[in-house]
């Protein structure tokens, strides 16, 4: 009987260049833009982020995370029969990062595609992989979140450029007789497209519109606080669990104030909140699997623990996955 899917390995990768708030503030000062370590920490909890070198792509970061996850799961790339990559910063317009990653892993034949749900991307991708495993379409899926958000940041806009970073996280999700993923809950509301978007596109050989990230931070903040609680509660209800069953809350790592607010609403002590936003910044679709891998490798998350993963971001999209690790 293999009617469930379960995470059997996690991995992540950060590009080596670590940029502190002070580094960024110095760089912005050179452009006549004022920011400070104090403002960024107080408003977001971010102390540093990693930026990829100019020639490094999402598939490069995803490859390192995928290799680490496969090793942790004790699987070889040849055993993977499904690849889903969550990203909003693909290597190229097409084909997908997943197809490029498949080739870099030295395998061929299995389905490979990207999921575009911005910062909710990993939670979306995990939900799709879970459904495909439970219906028998796959047995050993590689689910990756990989981003180079530094490419779409306007370094003349202090309200956004201090918030994001680059990185990748991955899990191996396998068919299992034991329940791993317990319940999922996904949503989107496209009328909020304008509050968080990169409005440009490629047309007739040039970029039409702006290729930089635009965000109405306060509007996103307010929506995020509300939907993260709703998604967690609905997911718990679907699984027949309560907030007190959660061992670890692993929300999208965008702002410590949103994350702590969600933990408070779920009546979870601060110690049950996994925090990597301080060192990673907001890595969009990579943030949840990066935080998960760091929590596993630091020894916090142990086999059998109940985890609540949550994503929220552009679209507007949001969702949650409750699982037994
Ligand atoms: O990944 C998808 C999910 N994304 C999110 O969850 C992000 C949600 N939003 C946020 O995290 C917060 O809204 C921000 C961190 C983006 C902004 O924090 P805030 O507390 O909402 O600040 P604010 O936008 O109200 O700005 C307060 C002040 C403004 O100055 P005035 O108008 O009060 O004079 C800004 O101009 O802070 C100023 N400001 C800055 N000052 C120094 C904005 N950015 C900066 C900066 N450095 N980098």
Description of the structure:
The protein is an alpha+beta fold and 325 residues long. 51% of the residues are buried. Helix 3 crosses helix 4 and helix 7 runs parallel beside helix 8. The two termini are 19 Å apart. The chain has a five-stranded mixed beta sheet with strand order 1-7-6-4-5, with helices on both faces. A four-stranded mixed beta sheet has the order 8-15-14-13, sandwiched between helices. It has ten helices and 15 strands. It binds oxa(dethia)-CoA.
Quick overview of this protein structure:
With 325 residues, the chain is of the alpha+beta class. The protein contains 10 helices and 15 strands. 33% of the residues lie in helices and 26% in strands.
Give the arrangement of secondary structure elements.
Layout: E1 4-13, E2 18-20, H1 21-29, H2 37-44, E3 48-50, H3 58-73, E4 82-86, H4 97-104, E5 112-115, H5 121-134, E6 140-148, H6 158-161, E7 166-176, E8 181-188, E9 196-197, E10 201-203, E11 206-208, E12 214-215, H7 217-239, E13 248-251, H8 256-265, H9 277-280, H10 287-297, E14 306-313, E15 317-324
Parallel strand pairs: 4-5, 4-6, 13-14
Antiparallel strand pairs: 1-7, 2-3, 6-7, 8-15, 9-12, 10-11, 14-15
Helix pairs in contact: 3-4, 7-8
Oxa(dethia)-CoA (UT7) binds next to helix 2, helix 6, helix 7 and strand 14.
Keywords:
325 residues, alpha+beta, Peroxisomal Thiolase, Chain A, domain 1, five-stranded mixed β-sheet, 33% helix, globular, binds oxa(dethia)-CoA
Which radius of gyration do the C-alpha atoms yield? 19 Å
Count of DSSP strands:
15
Query: What is the fold-level CATH name, i.e. the topology of the largest domain?
Result: Peroxisomal Thiolase, Chain A, domain 1
- The CATH superfamily of the largest domain appears as Thiolase/Chalcone synthase
Strand content: 25-35%
Q: Tell me the helix content.
A: 25-40%
Bound molecules: oxa(dethia)-CoA
Topology as H/E string?
A: EEHHEHEHEHEHEEEEEEHEHHHEE
Question: What is the CATH C level class of the largest domain, in words?
Answer: Alpha Beta
| Estimated structural class | alpha+beta
Low-confidence stretches: none
What distance lies between the first and last C-alpha atoms, to the nearest angstrom? 19 Å
């Amino acid at each position: 009987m293999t009617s469930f899917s379960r995470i059997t390995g996690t991995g992540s990768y950060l590009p080596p260049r670590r940029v502190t708030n002070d580094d960024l503030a110095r760089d912005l000062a050179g452009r006549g833009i004022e920011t400070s370590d104090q403002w960024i920490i107080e408003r977001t909890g971010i102390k540093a982020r990693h930026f990829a070198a100019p020639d490094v792509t999402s598939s490069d970061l995803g490859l390192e995370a995928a290799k680490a996850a496969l090793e942790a799961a004790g699987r070889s790339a040849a055993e993977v029969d499904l690849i889903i990559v969550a990203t909003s910063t693909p290597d190229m317009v097409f084909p997908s990062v997943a197809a490029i990653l498949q080739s870099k892993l030295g395998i061929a034949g299995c389905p490979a595609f990207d999921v575009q749900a911005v910062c909710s991307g990993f939670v979306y991708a995990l939900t799709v992989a879970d459904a495909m495993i439970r219906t028998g379409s796959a047995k050993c899926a590689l689910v990756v979140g990989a981003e180079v958000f530094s490419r779409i940041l306007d370094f003349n806009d202090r309200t956004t450029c201090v918030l994001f970073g680059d990185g990748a996280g991955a899990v191996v999700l396998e068919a299992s007789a034991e329940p791993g993923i317990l319940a999922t809950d996904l949503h989107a509301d496209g009328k909020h497209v304008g509050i968080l978007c990169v409005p440009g596109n490629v047309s007739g050989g040039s970029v039409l519109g702006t290729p930089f990230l635009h965000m109405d931070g306060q509007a996103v903040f307010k929506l995020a606080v509300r939907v993260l609680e709703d998604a967690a509660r609905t997911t718990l209800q679907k699984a027949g669990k309560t907030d007190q069953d959660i061992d670890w809350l692993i929300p999208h790592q965008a702002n410590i104030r949103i994350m702590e607010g969600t933990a408070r609403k779920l009546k979870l002590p601060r110690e049950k909140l996994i925090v990597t936003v301080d060192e990673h910044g907001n890595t969009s679709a990579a943030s949840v699997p990066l935080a998960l891998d760091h929590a596993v490798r630091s020894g916090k998350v142990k086999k059998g623990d109940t985890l609540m993963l949550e994503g929220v971001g552009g679209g507007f999209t949001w969702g949650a996955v409750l699982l037994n690790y």
